[in-house]
Specification:
By secondary structure, the protein is of the alpha/beta class. The chain contains seven helices and eight strands. The strands form two sheets. The chain has a six-stranded mixed β-sheet with strand order 5-4-3-6-7-8. Strands 1-2 form a two-stranded antiparallel ribbon. Strand 1 and strand 2 form a beta hairpin.
Length: 236
Amino acid sequence: MTNEKLPEHVRRNRLAWDKLARDYAEPGRRAWSEEEPSWGIWSIPETEAQILPEVKGLDVIELGCGTAYVSAWLARRGARVTGIDNSSEQLKTARELQTKHGLSFPLLHGNAEEVPLPDKSFDLAISEYGASIWCDPYKWIPEASRLLRPGGELIFLVNGTILILCTNDDENIPASPQMLRDYFGMHRFEFPDSGGQWNSTSATEIGFGSCEQAVLKLKILKNFARKKVPQRVIPL
């Protein structure tokens, strides 16, 4: 799909992330070299977080894979992994690291809200600060459900709702001890100075949350797409 045919927020994210990709190449290289997965802004090791199920033999898709280090971790654990990302520059780094580390799995350039793969293709969908914060939650979560087989599992990591409620529009200003936003009706937020568009799913609105970040791990339910979750947006 050409940039002109993409939804407005997907197109803007693509342009922004193609510019930002060089800043994430080195962190991606470090993450690819880690033997144990670690999660979030605090790099909590998997042995403590225990986020992942047994993935050996599972078909897994990473939605918004970036440099695909999460996909690499899962592939080393025996999963059959596919990654999709909106940025060709991020995927360029991912392919370089595949060659360097001798790992091969499909990497798709595309929109995680509209994955060009058949229904019921995967056992597990995962997103660490990928589709989970950059895509419209009313689109990417139903899309994950479509891609998953019965009993499939969705795992995603997002910014905690309380943090978003206390964050100033100017991201150079630290989060406030006071709430600056209305909790109800959250969907799309705009942050003018960030150069891209950020859509954030609130785990709190579906029963999970923390001040710093939230990890949500759940069995896919057919009515999940009806839950109210917010989206965060940053204009160029």
